[in-house]
Amino acid sequence: MKKSFLLIIMMVAACLSIRAARTDYRIIPQPKSVAVDSTQVFELRSGMGISYDASDPEVSRNVQMLRQWVEELTGITLALTPDDKKAPVKLVLGMASDKKSKKAKKGQAAQTQSEQQQEAYTISVGKAGLEIRARKPIGFFRAAQTLRKALPIASKEDRGTAVQLPYAEIQDEPRFVYRGAHLDCARHYFSVEVIKQYLDVMALHGCNQFHWHFTEDQGWRFEVKALPDLAKKGSVRNQTVVGRNTGVYDGQRYGGYYTQEECRELVNYAAERYINIIPEIDLPGHMLSALHVYPNLGCTGGPYEVWPIWGVSRDVLCAGNPETMTFLKTVLGELCDVFPSKFIHIGGDECPKERWQNCPKCQAKAKELGLVDDGKHSVENQLQTWINHEIEHFLNERGRDLIGWDETLEGGLTEGATVMSWRGVDGGVEAARQHHRVIMSPTTYCYIDYYQLKDQWNQPLGIGGYLPVSKVYSFEPLMPDALSEEEQKYILGPQVNLWTEYVAYPQHVFYMLLPRLDAISEVQWCRPDQKDFQDFKNRLPRMLQLYDQMGLNYCRKVE
Predict the structure, then answer these.
(1) I want to staple 411 with a disulfide (CB 3.0 to 4.6 A). Which of 215, 272, 351, 381 is the partner?
(2) In a domain, 556, yes or no
(3) Residue 458, C-beta contacts closer than 8 angstroms, at least 6 positions apart
(4) Phi, psi of 371 (to 5 degrees)
Protein backbone atom coordinates (compact mmCIF):
# COMPACT_ATOMS: atom_id res chain seq x y z
CA MET A 1 0.00 0.00 0.00
CA LYS A 2 2.78 2.37 0.95
CA LYS A 3 4.61 1.59 -2.30
CA SER A 4 1.49 2.32 -4.36
CA PHE A 5 0.94 5.60 -2.53
CA LEU A 6 4.58 6.58 -3.12
CA LEU A 7 4.24 5.71 -6.81
CA ILE A 8 1.18 7.95 -7.11
CA ILE A 9 3.02 10.83 -5.43
CA MET A 10 5.93 10.41 -7.83
CA MET A 11 3.61 10.36 -10.85
CA VAL A 12 1.84 13.53 -9.67
CA ALA A 13 5.21 15.24 -9.09
CA ALA A 14 6.32 14.20 -12.58
CA CYS A 15 3.14 15.62 -14.11
CA LEU A 16 3.60 18.89 -12.24
CA SER A 17 7.18 19.03 -13.47
CA ILE A 18 6.04 18.52 -17.05
CA ARG A 19 3.46 21.29 -16.71
CA ALA A 20 6.08 23.63 -15.26
CA ALA A 21 8.43 22.95 -18.16
CA ARG A 22 6.10 24.40 -20.75
CA THR A 23 7.05 27.24 -23.06
CA ASP A 24 5.04 30.48 -22.83
CA TYR A 25 5.16 32.69 -25.93
CA ARG A 26 3.65 35.68 -24.08
CA ILE A 27 6.88 37.67 -23.95
CA ILE A 28 8.11 41.28 -23.92
CA PRO A 29 8.18 42.88 -26.41
CA GLN A 30 5.40 40.78 -27.86
CA PRO A 31 5.82 39.58 -31.45
CA LYS A 32 3.75 40.99 -34.28
CA SER A 33 1.68 37.83 -34.63
CA VAL A 34 1.41 34.68 -32.47
CA ALA A 35 -0.95 31.78 -33.22
CA VAL A 36 -0.80 28.91 -30.68
CA ASP A 37 -2.35 25.44 -30.63
CA SER A 38 -1.95 24.54 -26.98
CA THR A 39 -3.47 21.09 -27.47
CA GLN A 40 -0.34 19.81 -29.21
CA VAL A 41 3.29 20.09 -28.17
CA PHE A 42 6.77 19.42 -29.49
CA GLU A 43 9.21 18.20 -26.85
CA LEU A 44 12.69 19.66 -26.90
CA ARG A 45 15.25 17.22 -25.51
CA SER A 46 18.98 17.05 -24.94
CA GLY A 47 20.89 15.60 -27.87
CA MET A 48 18.51 16.94 -30.53
CA GLY A 49 20.33 18.41 -33.50
CA ILE A 50 20.30 21.94 -34.94
CA SER A 51 20.51 22.22 -38.72
CA TYR A 52 21.98 25.45 -40.14
CA ASP A 53 24.40 26.81 -42.74
CA ALA A 54 27.79 26.33 -41.08
CA SER A 55 29.56 28.09 -43.97
CA ASP A 56 28.15 31.42 -42.78
CA PRO A 57 30.06 32.56 -39.65
CA GLU A 58 27.30 35.02 -38.69
CA VAL A 59 24.69 32.27 -38.76
CA SER A 60 27.01 29.97 -36.83
CA ARG A 61 27.51 32.62 -34.14
CA ASN A 62 23.75 32.99 -33.68
CA VAL A 63 23.31 29.23 -33.46
CA GLN A 64 25.92 29.12 -30.71
CA MET A 65 24.06 31.84 -28.80
CA LEU A 66 20.75 30.01 -29.16
CA ARG A 67 22.35 26.78 -27.97
CA GLN A 68 23.94 28.59 -24.99
CA TRP A 69 20.69 30.25 -23.89
CA VAL A 70 18.72 27.00 -24.13
CA GLU A 71 21.28 25.26 -21.93
CA GLU A 72 21.48 28.12 -19.41
CA LEU A 73 17.71 28.16 -18.94
CA THR A 74 16.75 24.50 -19.18
CA GLY A 75 19.90 22.40 -18.92
CA ILE A 76 19.08 20.94 -22.35
CA THR A 77 22.15 20.57 -24.57
CA LEU A 78 21.45 20.64 -28.31
CA ALA A 79 23.84 19.12 -30.83
CA LEU A 80 25.27 21.07 -33.75
CA THR A 81 24.35 19.07 -36.87
CA PRO A 82 24.59 21.52 -39.78
CA ASP A 83 24.27 18.86 -42.52
CA ASP A 84 21.35 16.98 -41.00
CA LYS A 85 18.24 17.90 -42.99
CA LYS A 86 16.14 15.79 -40.64
CA ALA A 87 17.28 17.63 -37.52
CA PRO A 88 14.28 18.61 -35.33
CA VAL A 89 15.60 22.17 -34.93
CA LYS A 90 16.26 24.07 -38.16
CA LEU A 91 17.51 27.58 -38.99
CA VAL A 92 16.72 28.50 -42.60
CA LEU A 93 17.65 31.70 -44.45
CA GLY A 94 14.78 32.95 -46.57
CA MET A 95 11.15 33.67 -45.72
CA ALA A 96 8.28 31.72 -47.25
CA SER A 97 6.47 35.02 -47.93
CA ASP A 98 9.42 36.24 -49.99
CA LYS A 99 9.18 33.21 -52.28
CA LYS A 100 5.50 33.94 -52.89
CA SER A 101 6.27 37.60 -53.52
CA LYS A 102 8.97 36.82 -56.06
CA LYS A 103 6.67 34.43 -57.86
CA ALA A 104 3.91 37.04 -57.99
CA LYS A 105 6.29 39.70 -59.32
CA LYS A 106 8.03 37.55 -61.90
CA GLY A 107 9.82 39.74 -64.43
CA GLN A 108 9.71 42.79 -62.17
CA ALA A 109 12.50 44.26 -60.05
CA ALA A 110 12.29 43.09 -56.44
CA GLN A 111 11.21 45.77 -53.99
CA THR A 112 13.81 47.08 -51.59
CA GLN A 113 13.03 45.84 -48.11
CA SER A 114 12.97 48.22 -45.18
CA GLU A 115 15.51 47.91 -42.40
CA GLN A 116 12.77 46.58 -40.14
CA GLN A 117 11.93 43.86 -42.68
CA GLN A 118 15.59 42.84 -42.69
CA GLU A 119 15.11 41.89 -39.03
CA ALA A 120 11.98 39.83 -39.69
CA TYR A 121 11.72 36.18 -38.68
CA THR A 122 9.21 33.39 -38.28
CA ILE A 123 9.12 30.58 -35.73
CA SER A 124 7.15 27.45 -36.57
CA VAL A 125 6.61 24.73 -34.00
CA GLY A 126 4.87 21.59 -35.21
CA LYS A 127 5.06 17.86 -35.68
CA ALA A 128 8.40 18.10 -37.53
CA GLY A 129 9.95 20.18 -34.77
CA LEU A 130 11.11 23.77 -34.45
CA GLU A 131 11.92 25.81 -37.55
CA ILE A 132 13.23 29.38 -37.57
CA ARG A 133 13.26 31.34 -40.82
CA ALA A 134 14.85 34.75 -41.35
CA ARG A 135 15.73 37.04 -44.23
CA LYS A 136 19.08 37.87 -42.69
CA PRO A 137 21.14 36.39 -39.82
CA ILE A 138 19.93 39.23 -37.60
CA GLY A 139 16.49 37.62 -37.77
CA PHE A 140 17.93 34.44 -36.24
CA PHE A 141 19.23 36.53 -33.35
CA ARG A 142 15.84 38.16 -32.78
CA ALA A 143 14.14 34.74 -32.93
CA ALA A 144 16.67 33.24 -30.51
CA GLN A 145 15.91 36.04 -28.03
CA THR A 146 12.19 35.34 -28.41
CA LEU A 147 12.74 31.69 -27.56
CA ARG A 148 15.04 32.65 -24.71
CA LYS A 149 12.26 34.70 -23.14
CA ALA A 150 9.62 32.04 -23.82
CA LEU A 151 11.44 28.99 -22.48
CA PRO A 152 10.83 27.96 -18.85
CA ILE A 153 13.62 28.39 -16.34
CA ALA A 154 14.29 24.93 -14.98
CA SER A 155 14.80 24.30 -11.29
CA LYS A 156 18.00 22.62 -10.19
CA GLU A 157 16.17 19.29 -10.01
CA ASP A 158 14.56 19.63 -13.45
CA ARG A 159 17.60 20.73 -15.43
CA GLY A 160 17.98 18.63 -18.56
CA THR A 161 14.34 17.51 -18.51
CA ALA A 162 12.43 17.76 -21.79
CA VAL A 163 10.64 21.07 -22.41
CA GLN A 164 7.26 21.28 -24.08
CA LEU A 165 6.76 23.80 -26.90
CA PRO A 166 3.08 24.17 -27.87
CA TYR A 167 2.55 24.18 -31.63
CA ALA A 168 2.80 27.78 -32.81
CA GLU A 169 3.29 30.13 -35.75
CA ILE A 170 5.09 33.35 -34.85
CA GLN A 171 5.74 36.20 -37.28
CA ASP A 172 7.67 39.22 -36.17
CA GLU A 173 9.52 42.38 -37.15
CA PRO A 174 10.07 45.69 -35.32
CA ARG A 175 8.00 48.84 -35.77
CA PHE A 176 10.82 51.41 -35.57
CA VAL A 177 14.22 51.33 -37.22
CA TYR A 178 15.83 53.16 -34.26
CA ARG A 179 15.37 51.59 -30.82
CA GLY A 180 17.72 53.27 -28.41
CA ALA A 181 18.96 53.26 -24.83
CA HIS A 182 21.45 55.75 -23.39
CA LEU A 183 23.91 55.57 -20.51
CA ASP A 184 25.87 58.45 -19.02
CA CYS A 185 29.35 57.19 -18.12
CA ALA A 186 30.77 60.69 -17.63
CA ARG A 187 29.21 61.63 -14.28
CA HIS A 188 30.02 58.13 -13.04
CA TYR A 189 32.31 55.60 -14.69
CA PHE A 190 31.18 52.01 -15.22
CA SER A 191 33.50 49.15 -16.12
CA VAL A 192 33.69 47.42 -19.49
CA GLU A 193 32.00 44.38 -17.96
CA VAL A 194 29.06 46.51 -16.77
CA ILE A 195 28.72 48.04 -20.24
CA LYS A 196 28.64 44.52 -21.72
CA GLN A 197 25.89 43.59 -19.28
CA TYR A 198 23.98 46.73 -20.27
CA LEU A 199 24.32 45.75 -23.94
CA ASP A 200 23.10 42.23 -23.17
CA VAL A 201 19.98 43.62 -21.51
CA MET A 202 19.38 45.94 -24.46
CA ALA A 203 19.67 43.02 -26.88
CA LEU A 204 17.22 41.00 -24.80
CA HIS A 205 14.66 43.77 -25.39
CA GLY A 206 15.31 44.24 -29.12
CA CYS A 207 17.16 47.57 -28.76
CA ASN A 208 19.67 48.30 -31.53
CA GLN A 209 21.26 51.70 -30.65
CA PHE A 210 23.44 52.33 -27.59
CA HIS A 211 23.96 56.05 -27.01
CA TRP A 212 27.19 56.26 -24.99
CA HIS A 213 27.67 59.59 -23.21
CA PHE A 214 31.44 60.02 -22.73
CA THR A 215 32.27 63.56 -21.63
CA GLU A 216 31.02 66.05 -19.07
CA ASP A 217 32.08 68.82 -16.72
CA GLN A 218 32.59 66.03 -14.16
CA GLY A 219 34.85 63.77 -16.23
CA TRP A 220 36.35 62.97 -19.64
CA ARG A 221 36.14 59.21 -20.33
CA PHE A 222 37.45 58.73 -23.92
CA GLU A 223 41.16 58.25 -24.63
CA VAL A 224 42.55 60.56 -27.32
CA LYS A 225 46.02 59.33 -28.26
CA ALA A 226 47.11 62.66 -29.74
CA LEU A 227 46.14 64.35 -26.45
CA PRO A 228 47.17 61.80 -23.78
CA ASP A 229 46.62 64.13 -20.80
CA LEU A 230 43.01 64.73 -21.79
CA ALA A 231 41.77 61.41 -20.39
CA LYS A 232 44.53 60.88 -17.82
CA LYS A 233 43.91 64.22 -16.10
CA GLY A 234 40.44 65.14 -17.35
CA SER A 235 38.89 61.90 -16.09
CA VAL A 236 39.76 62.64 -12.45
CA ARG A 237 37.87 64.91 -10.08
CA ASN A 238 39.29 65.53 -6.64
CA GLN A 239 36.02 64.86 -4.83
CA THR A 240 32.28 64.55 -5.42
CA VAL A 241 29.44 66.45 -3.80
CA VAL A 242 27.19 64.41 -1.53
CA GLY A 243 23.56 64.43 -2.64
CA ARG A 244 22.06 67.38 -4.51
CA ASN A 245 24.80 70.02 -4.26
CA THR A 246 24.63 70.04 -0.47
CA GLY A 247 28.00 71.73 -0.04
CA VAL A 248 29.27 68.54 1.61
CA TYR A 249 31.93 66.55 -0.28
CA ASP A 250 33.15 62.98 0.08
CA GLY A 251 36.86 63.92 -0.15
CA GLN A 252 37.56 60.97 -2.49
CA ARG A 253 39.37 61.27 -5.82
CA TYR A 254 37.20 59.75 -8.55
CA GLY A 255 38.22 58.75 -12.06
CA GLY A 256 38.33 56.22 -14.84
CA TYR A 257 38.29 56.28 -18.63
CA TYR A 258 37.98 53.92 -21.57
CA THR A 259 40.99 53.18 -23.72
CA GLN A 260 40.49 53.02 -27.45
CA GLU A 261 41.22 49.29 -27.30
CA GLU A 262 38.42 48.84 -24.75
CA CYS A 263 36.08 50.90 -26.93
CA ARG A 264 36.84 48.71 -29.95
CA GLU A 265 36.23 45.62 -27.85
CA LEU A 266 32.81 46.99 -26.90
CA VAL A 267 32.04 47.97 -30.51
CA ASN A 268 32.65 44.35 -31.54
CA TYR A 269 30.70 42.97 -28.58
CA ALA A 270 27.74 45.21 -29.42
CA ALA A 271 27.89 44.37 -33.13
CA GLU A 272 27.62 40.65 -32.36
CA ARG A 273 24.34 41.55 -30.64
CA TYR A 274 23.26 43.80 -33.54
CA ILE A 275 23.67 46.98 -31.53
CA ASN A 276 25.33 50.09 -32.92
CA ILE A 277 27.22 52.28 -30.44
CA ILE A 278 26.65 56.01 -30.93
CA PRO A 279 29.37 57.91 -29.04
CA GLU A 280 28.73 61.40 -27.72
CA ILE A 281 31.30 64.14 -27.18
CA ASP A 282 29.20 66.98 -25.74
CA LEU A 283 30.23 70.34 -27.21
CA PRO A 284 30.75 73.27 -26.88
CA GLY A 285 29.32 73.21 -23.33
CA HIS A 286 29.79 70.61 -20.60
CA MET A 287 33.55 70.84 -21.22
CA LEU A 288 35.13 71.68 -17.84
CA SER A 289 37.01 68.37 -17.81
CA ALA A 290 38.73 69.37 -21.05
CA LEU A 291 39.25 72.98 -19.95
CA HIS A 292 40.96 71.71 -16.79
CA VAL A 293 43.62 70.11 -18.99
CA TYR A 294 43.70 72.82 -21.69
CA PRO A 295 42.68 76.12 -20.04
CA ASN A 296 43.69 78.06 -23.17
CA LEU A 297 40.51 76.73 -24.82
CA GLY A 298 38.27 78.68 -22.43
CA CYS A 299 37.23 82.31 -22.73
CA THR A 300 38.81 83.37 -19.41
CA GLY A 301 41.96 81.22 -19.49
CA GLY A 302 41.07 79.49 -16.23
CA PRO A 303 42.17 77.92 -14.05
CA TYR A 304 39.39 75.33 -14.26
CA GLU A 305 38.70 72.20 -12.25
CA VAL A 306 36.95 68.97 -13.14
CA TRP A 307 33.67 69.82 -11.52
CA PRO A 308 32.82 68.06 -8.23
CA ILE A 309 29.20 69.28 -8.32
CA TRP A 310 26.19 68.77 -10.57
CA GLY A 311 24.58 71.29 -12.87
CA VAL A 312 25.47 73.47 -15.87
CA SER A 313 28.71 75.46 -15.86
CA ARG A 314 28.92 78.85 -17.54
CA ASP A 315 32.48 78.05 -18.63
CA VAL A 316 32.43 76.53 -22.14
CA LEU A 317 34.81 76.22 -25.07
CA CYS A 318 35.82 79.56 -26.58
CA ALA A 319 34.12 79.89 -29.97
CA GLY A 320 36.55 82.57 -31.13
CA ASN A 321 39.76 80.67 -30.43
CA PRO A 322 40.97 78.83 -33.58
CA GLU A 323 42.64 76.25 -31.33
CA THR A 324 39.15 75.17 -30.22
CA MET A 325 38.25 73.84 -33.65
CA THR A 326 41.63 72.12 -33.95
CA PHE A 327 41.00 70.44 -30.61
CA LEU A 328 37.49 69.31 -31.55
CA LYS A 329 38.56 67.90 -34.89
CA THR A 330 41.42 66.01 -33.26
CA VAL A 331 39.05 64.46 -30.73
CA LEU A 332 36.29 63.65 -33.22
CA GLY A 333 38.78 62.35 -35.78
CA GLU A 334 39.99 59.70 -33.33
CA LEU A 335 36.42 59.03 -32.26
CA CYS A 336 35.52 58.23 -35.87
CA ASP A 337 38.56 55.94 -36.13
CA VAL A 338 37.28 53.90 -33.18
CA PHE A 339 33.50 53.94 -33.70
CA PRO A 340 32.08 52.90 -37.10
CA SER A 341 28.65 54.35 -36.24
CA LYS A 342 26.96 56.31 -39.02
CA PHE A 343 25.74 58.68 -36.30
CA ILE A 344 28.07 60.75 -34.09
CA HIS A 345 26.43 62.70 -31.26
CA ILE A 346 27.81 66.18 -30.50
CA GLY A 347 25.43 67.12 -27.69
CA GLY A 348 24.91 70.85 -28.16
CA ASP A 349 22.66 71.22 -25.14
CA GLU A 350 22.86 73.54 -22.14
CA CYS A 351 25.59 75.83 -23.46
CA PRO A 352 25.36 79.16 -21.60
CA LYS A 353 26.42 82.12 -23.76
CA GLU A 354 27.49 84.49 -20.97
CA ARG A 355 31.23 83.97 -21.57
CA TRP A 356 30.85 84.44 -25.33
CA GLN A 357 28.96 87.70 -24.84
CA ASN A 358 31.91 89.13 -22.89
CA CYS A 359 34.76 87.45 -24.80
CA PRO A 360 36.67 89.66 -27.32
CA LYS A 361 37.69 86.58 -29.34
CA CYS A 362 34.12 85.30 -29.62
CA GLN A 363 32.73 88.71 -30.56
CA ALA A 364 35.48 89.18 -33.13
CA LYS A 365 34.63 85.80 -34.65
CA ALA A 366 30.96 86.73 -34.81
CA LYS A 367 31.85 89.97 -36.59
CA GLU A 368 34.13 88.09 -39.01
CA LEU A 369 31.24 85.75 -39.85
CA GLY A 370 28.84 88.68 -40.27
CA LEU A 371 26.48 87.47 -37.55
CA VAL A 372 23.77 89.84 -36.37
CA ASP A 373 20.80 89.38 -34.05
CA ASP A 374 17.84 88.82 -36.38
CA GLY A 375 15.25 88.86 -33.60
CA LYS A 376 14.85 85.11 -33.79
CA HIS A 377 18.41 83.92 -33.29
CA SER A 378 20.92 85.78 -31.13
CA VAL A 379 24.49 86.34 -32.31
CA GLU A 380 25.70 83.81 -29.75
CA ASN A 381 23.16 81.17 -30.82
CA GLN A 382 24.30 81.65 -34.41
CA LEU A 383 27.90 81.29 -33.24
CA GLN A 384 27.05 77.88 -31.81
CA THR A 385 25.34 77.00 -35.09
CA TRP A 386 28.56 77.91 -36.91
CA ILE A 387 30.44 75.46 -34.67
CA ASN A 388 27.79 72.80 -35.35
CA HIS A 389 28.05 73.31 -39.10
CA GLU A 390 31.85 73.15 -39.05
CA ILE A 391 31.74 69.91 -37.08
CA GLU A 392 28.97 68.50 -39.25
CA HIS A 393 31.03 69.18 -42.39
CA PHE A 394 34.03 67.51 -40.75
CA LEU A 395 31.91 64.44 -39.90
CA ASN A 396 30.29 64.34 -43.35
CA GLU A 397 33.73 64.17 -44.96
CA ARG A 398 34.22 60.96 -42.98
CA GLY A 399 30.88 59.53 -44.04
CA ARG A 400 29.18 60.29 -40.72
CA ASP A 401 26.00 62.11 -39.78
CA LEU A 402 25.58 64.49 -36.85
CA ILE A 403 23.07 64.06 -34.03
CA GLY A 404 22.43 66.88 -31.59
CA TRP A 405 20.02 67.61 -28.76
CA ASP A 406 17.07 69.80 -29.73
CA GLU A 407 18.93 73.02 -28.78
CA THR A 408 20.73 72.62 -32.11
CA LEU A 409 17.49 73.84 -33.74
CA GLU A 410 17.89 77.28 -32.16
CA GLY A 411 20.34 78.59 -34.72
CA GLY A 412 19.07 76.61 -37.69
CA LEU A 413 20.21 73.18 -38.90
CA THR A 414 21.64 71.84 -42.11
CA GLU A 415 19.64 69.29 -44.06
CA GLY A 416 21.51 66.16 -42.96
CA ALA A 417 21.43 66.73 -39.19
CA THR A 418 19.37 64.56 -36.86
CA VAL A 419 17.63 65.99 -33.79
CA MET A 420 17.25 64.18 -30.48
CA SER A 421 14.24 65.78 -28.81
CA TRP A 422 14.59 65.85 -25.01
CA ARG A 423 12.89 69.04 -23.78
CA GLY A 424 9.46 67.55 -24.37
CA VAL A 425 8.29 66.58 -27.86
CA ASP A 426 7.99 70.05 -29.40
CA GLY A 427 11.57 70.10 -30.67
CA GLY A 428 11.05 66.76 -32.38
CA VAL A 429 7.77 67.89 -33.92
CA GLU A 430 9.37 71.08 -35.26
CA ALA A 431 12.37 69.16 -36.61
CA ALA A 432 10.12 66.63 -38.38
CA ARG A 433 8.14 69.48 -39.94
CA GLN A 434 11.46 70.80 -41.26
CA HIS A 435 12.17 67.31 -42.64
CA HIS A 436 14.99 66.51 -40.23
CA ARG A 437 15.36 62.99 -38.91
CA VAL A 438 14.21 62.81 -35.29
CA ILE A 439 14.81 60.56 -32.31
CA MET A 440 12.13 61.07 -29.68
CA SER A 441 13.56 61.09 -26.15
CA PRO A 442 11.47 63.55 -24.10
CA THR A 443 11.94 63.89 -20.35
CA THR A 444 8.22 63.31 -19.84
CA TYR A 445 8.41 59.70 -21.10
CA CYS A 446 12.04 58.68 -21.51
CA TYR A 447 14.23 60.03 -18.68
CA ILE A 448 14.73 57.03 -16.45
CA ASP A 449 16.90 58.88 -13.94
CA TYR A 450 13.52 60.04 -12.60
CA TYR A 451 11.85 58.10 -9.78
CA GLN A 452 9.59 55.28 -10.93
CA LEU A 453 7.56 55.01 -7.71
CA LYS A 454 5.59 57.69 -5.85
CA ASP A 455 7.25 56.65 -2.58
CA GLN A 456 10.55 58.35 -3.36
CA TRP A 457 11.93 58.12 0.17
CA ASN A 458 12.23 54.34 0.04
CA GLN A 459 13.96 54.24 -3.35
CA PRO A 460 17.58 54.75 -4.39
CA LEU A 461 18.38 58.42 -4.98
CA GLY A 462 17.16 59.91 -8.26
CA ILE A 463 17.39 63.31 -9.90
CA GLY A 464 13.73 64.00 -9.10
CA GLY A 465 10.47 63.80 -11.02
CA TYR A 466 8.16 60.82 -11.34
CA LEU A 467 8.19 58.52 -14.36
CA PRO A 468 6.39 55.23 -13.67
CA VAL A 469 6.39 52.24 -16.00
CA SER A 470 2.82 53.06 -17.04
CA LYS A 471 3.83 56.52 -18.26
CA VAL A 472 6.74 55.13 -20.30
CA TYR A 473 4.40 52.52 -21.78
CA SER A 474 1.87 55.17 -22.86
CA PHE A 475 4.32 57.02 -25.11
CA GLU A 476 3.45 57.36 -28.81
CA PRO A 477 6.54 58.70 -30.65
CA LEU A 478 4.86 59.48 -33.98
CA MET A 479 2.72 62.25 -32.46
CA PRO A 480 -0.23 61.66 -34.82
CA ASP A 481 -2.12 64.69 -33.48
CA ALA A 482 0.76 67.02 -34.36
CA LEU A 483 2.36 65.50 -37.47
CA SER A 484 1.03 64.47 -40.85
CA GLU A 485 1.61 60.95 -42.13
CA GLU A 486 4.40 62.26 -44.36
CA GLU A 487 6.07 64.13 -41.47
CA GLN A 488 5.87 61.05 -39.25
CA LYS A 489 8.28 59.30 -41.61
CA TYR A 490 11.08 61.46 -40.17
CA ILE A 491 10.62 59.98 -36.68
CA LEU A 492 13.25 57.23 -36.52
CA GLY A 493 12.16 55.93 -33.13
CA PRO A 494 12.30 56.50 -29.35
CA GLN A 495 15.12 56.24 -26.81
CA VAL A 496 15.34 56.11 -23.00
CA ASN A 497 18.09 58.09 -21.27
CA LEU A 498 19.84 57.23 -18.02
CA TRP A 499 21.84 60.14 -16.59
CA THR A 500 24.02 59.23 -13.62
CA GLU A 501 24.58 62.23 -11.37
CA TYR A 502 23.02 60.16 -8.61
CA VAL A 503 23.62 56.68 -10.03
CA ALA A 504 27.07 55.53 -8.99
CA TYR A 505 26.88 51.71 -8.89
CA PRO A 506 25.86 48.97 -11.33
CA GLN A 507 23.03 47.73 -9.09
CA HIS A 508 21.53 51.22 -9.19
CA VAL A 509 21.92 51.40 -12.98
CA PHE A 510 19.83 48.29 -13.54
CA TYR A 511 17.31 49.28 -10.87
CA MET A 512 16.61 52.49 -12.81
CA LEU A 513 16.59 50.66 -16.15
CA LEU A 514 14.33 47.72 -15.30
CA PRO A 515 11.48 47.24 -15.85
CA ARG A 516 11.11 50.60 -17.62
CA LEU A 517 13.17 49.21 -20.50
CA ASP A 518 10.46 46.55 -20.87
CA ALA A 519 7.90 49.32 -21.31
CA ILE A 520 9.90 51.30 -23.88
CA SER A 521 10.73 48.09 -25.75
CA GLU A 522 7.03 47.62 -26.54
CA VAL A 523 6.84 51.26 -27.63
CA GLN A 524 9.83 50.65 -29.90
CA TRP A 525 8.81 47.25 -31.23
CA CYS A 526 5.00 46.99 -31.25
CA ARG A 527 2.19 48.68 -33.12
CA PRO A 528 -0.05 50.90 -30.97
CA ASP A 529 -3.03 48.59 -31.46
CA GLN A 530 -1.03 45.73 -29.90
CA LYS A 531 -0.37 47.57 -26.67
CA ASP A 532 -2.40 46.97 -23.51
CA PHE A 533 -0.88 47.90 -20.17
CA GLN A 534 -2.74 45.29 -18.14
CA ASP A 535 -1.67 42.57 -20.54
CA PHE A 536 1.88 43.95 -20.36
CA LYS A 537 1.82 43.62 -16.57
CA ASN A 538 0.56 40.05 -16.90
CA ARG A 539 3.55 39.20 -19.09
CA LEU A 540 6.10 41.02 -16.94
CA PRO A 541 6.65 38.37 -14.20
CA ARG A 542 8.28 36.06 -16.75
CA MET A 543 10.85 38.78 -17.52
CA LEU A 544 11.50 39.35 -13.82
CA GLN A 545 12.26 35.65 -13.41
CA LEU A 546 14.75 35.97 -16.24
CA TYR A 547 16.39 38.97 -14.54
CA ASP A 548 16.76 36.89 -11.39
CA GLN A 549 18.38 34.13 -13.44
CA MET A 550 20.74 36.70 -14.99
CA GLY A 551 21.61 38.19 -11.59
CA LEU A 552 20.18 41.62 -12.42
CA ASN A 553 18.80 44.14 -9.94
CA TYR A 554 15.43 45.72 -10.80
CA CYS A 555 12.51 47.61 -9.31
CA ARG A 556 10.03 45.02 -7.99
CA LYS A 557 6.96 47.24 -8.05
CA VAL A 558 5.16 48.59 -11.10
CA GLU A 559 3.10 51.78 -11.13
Answers:
(1) 381
(2) no
(3) none
(4) -85, 135
- Angle (CA) 80-193-242 rounded to 5° is 155
Q: Does the pLDDT of residue 100 top 80, yes or no?
A: no
User: Which residues on adjacent β-strands are paired with residue 78?
Assistant: none
Report whether 335 contacts 281 (CB < 8 A).
yes
Nearest to 279 by CA among 205, 208, 339: 339
The Cα–Cα gap between 257 and 261 comes to 12
Q: Which residues pair with 260 in a beta bridge?
A: none
- Helices then strands (H, E): number in the chain? 20, 19
What stretch of H or E contains 141?
helix 137-150
Residue 263 and residue 132 share a domain: no
Contact 170, 25 (CB under 8 A): yes
Domain that holds residue 168: 20-97+116-172
Q: Are 442 and 424 in contact (CB under 8 A)?
A: yes
For residue 528, say if its preceding peptide bond is cis, omega within 30 degrees of 0: no
Residue range 486-498: mean pLDDT, rounded: 97
**CATH number of the domain residue 81 falls in:** 3.30.379.10
Domain stops at, among 172, 195, 215? 172
| Same structural domain, 318 and 395 | yes
One-letter amino acid for residue 340 of the chain:
P
Closest C-alpha among 279, 292, 280 to residue 219: 292
The answer to whether the beta carbons of residues 178 and 490 sit under 8 Å apart is no
Nearest-angstrom CA–CA distance, 42 and 162: 10
| Residue 333: pLDDT over 90 | yes
pLDDT per position as a tens digit, 26-85:
999 999 999 999 999 999 999 999 999 999 999 999 999 999 999 999 999 999 999 898
Residue type, 517: L
